[in-house]
Each structure stands twice: as C-alpha cells, then as structure tokens.
Amino acid sequence: MTIPNKVYNVLKWILLIFVPAFITLLTTLTMVWKWEIPLEAIVTTISAIATFLGALIGISTKNYREIFTNQQYADNLITIAKNNPTVYGWGAFGAPASYGNNKQRYGVPNAPDSAFIFDCSGFVYKAIPWGWYGDHNRVYGGAAYKAEGFESLETNNILAQCYDVSDDFSNIAVGEVLYMDGHVALYIGSGKAVECTSKWTGGCLFSEVQNCGIDTGLPYKRTWLKHGKLPFLNYVAEPVVDKKQEQIDKINEIRKNLDELEAML
Questions:
Q1: pLDDT range class, residue 21, cuts 50, 70, 90
Q2: Cα 254 from chain centroid?
Q3: What is the Cα–Cα distance from 131 to 118, expressed in whole angstroms?
C-alpha cells in the first residue's frame, strides 16, 4: 500500500519534530517541577507508537532522536546539574542513591539519599539518550541501559564517535564534547562547560574552559585537549549579531520615540 504524500509528510513531521520535542518538553518540565506522573510509562508508550509508525513509513527511532538540537541537549544537562543533588560514581548514568544497593554498587556509601549518581561519560553521553528523567523509584533513574542506537562507550572512545574533532577552540559550538585523557564534559557556551567529576565538589558542576580565553568567574577551570560534535545532535548555527547595527537600530528607535513624544506636546 502506498501512503499518500500528504499523509506521509504529516506522519514524518509528527515523528521528526513533534514527538522528540514533546518528549523533551515533558521530561524537562517533570524534572523542573517534580511532577508525580508515570513519566516512564508515558515516554515508553509514545516511543513505541512512534517506532511503529516509523516502521510503517521507513523512519527509524535513531533518525527522530537526531532532531534534538545542540542547545536543547546542553539545556537538559544544565537542568540536571542545577536542579538535582549529584555525586560522582564510576559507571553510573543517573542512578538514584536511594534505590536498592546503588550506593555500594557505585562506591559512594556516604551519598545522600536525594542524590543521583553519574560519572563523566554517563552524564555527558548516556543519561539523556538513554531516557533518564530523574525517577528515584527506578534503578537507573528512568534510563534504559543501552537504549536503541546508543551503545555504552568508555570515556576515551566517545571522541571517536564524534565528527569535526579539533584542537582549535576558536569556533567551538554549544553541545560539543570536551575531551582529555580519561574525562569528558559538554561545552555550553560563553567559555563554560558542564561536567560530572570526582574533583572539587565530586558531582555535576560548571567549569571554565580555559582554551576559550574567556574569564567566566567560575572557580573550577580546565584546559582540554580536543572537542567534537556528537553524532546524534543537530548542530544549529548561532545567529551572528552585528553589534554596530544593533546600536544603530537602538538609537533610531529612541529617536522615533522622541519624535512621537514631541508630536504629542
């Protein structure tokens, strides 16, 4: 049976645009507002329906995941770091400390029950693609181990999956992986990174990327070896702002308002 072009385009829009955007919105709002809803069941149901429809029209799950932009991905990790107590535990990708024997499993016996446990690659590369949403009642916080299309990689192998890998940081984009031997982070713009580390506070935090030459005022600073783009993100170019033209437009707007005020007097 041939699907009419109009129906195909509608289904494609739903799968490539609406479904990932809605899942991201629902997941983010649930984390921020601590909604008590069966999020995992909802997301799983939506994903199952989308996978079925995708199979009918030849679009895979991996394809619609790729529609997530670099900024959306960075915002998700920023939200985790800002809104959740976290601790570093090797091999973890968002396991709640209060669940079962997770504290012993990840070597963090003194972690508070409210915390989620991550390591650097689990935070940067695995948690969001594997569906983490901060559920204290799930062994992995809601994530599904080795979710479709996303293998479990060691830290030093993640950069090999990236493209546009470079040691020149002059044109680094938001959402790129930052790499040094044995550690990764995510660049979030303005000379800053978000990462999970055993150093400093021992959890998710924000640090300065010294390669960028921007004084961020952050107390934690690192110099990285390389950076690269994640294969499952859509990197959207940031608009270039003409500062001079922006100032001229503001001046013209002020003059217009003054002229209107003068005409009223």
A1: confident
A2: 39
A3: 14
Please compute the mean of the pLDDT values over residues 181-198 and round it to a whole number.
97
Residue 79: strand, helix, or coil: helix
CA–CA gap between residue 33 and residue 204 (Å, rounded): 20
Question: In terms of C-beta density within 10 A (0-12 exposed, 13-18 middle, 19 or more buried), how is residue 141 classed?
Answer: buried
Average pLDDT over the chain reads 86
Q: Would the pLDDT of 195 be above 50?
A: yes
Question: What are the sequence ranges of the domains in the chain?
Answer: 1-67
**Paired sense of beta strands 204-209 and 221-222, if any:** parallel
Q: What average pLDDT score do residues 33-62 get?
A: 76
As a whole number of angstroms, the distance between CA 264 and CA 249 comes to 23
CA–CA dist 107, 59 (Å, integer): 41
What b-and-e string marks burial along 40-65, b requiring 16 or more CB atoms within 10 Å of the CB?
Answer: bebbeeebeebbeebeeeebebeebb
Phi/psi at 92 (5° precision): -90, 150
Other CB atoms within 10 A of residue 263 CB: 7
Half-sphere exposure of 257 (CA within 13 A, CB side): 6
Among 131, 155, 159, 127, residue whose Cα is nearest residue 230: 159
pTM of the model: 0.69
Backbone φ, ψ for residue 121 (5° rounding):
-75, -35
Rounded CA-CA distance 204/198 in Å is: 9
Q: What number of other Cβ atoms are within 10 A of residue 202's Cβ?
A: 15
Reported as a single tens digit per residue, the pLDDT across 74-125 is: 999 999 999 999 999 999 999 999 999 999 999 999 999 999 999 999 999 9
Of 158, 209, 162, the C-alpha closest to 184 is 158
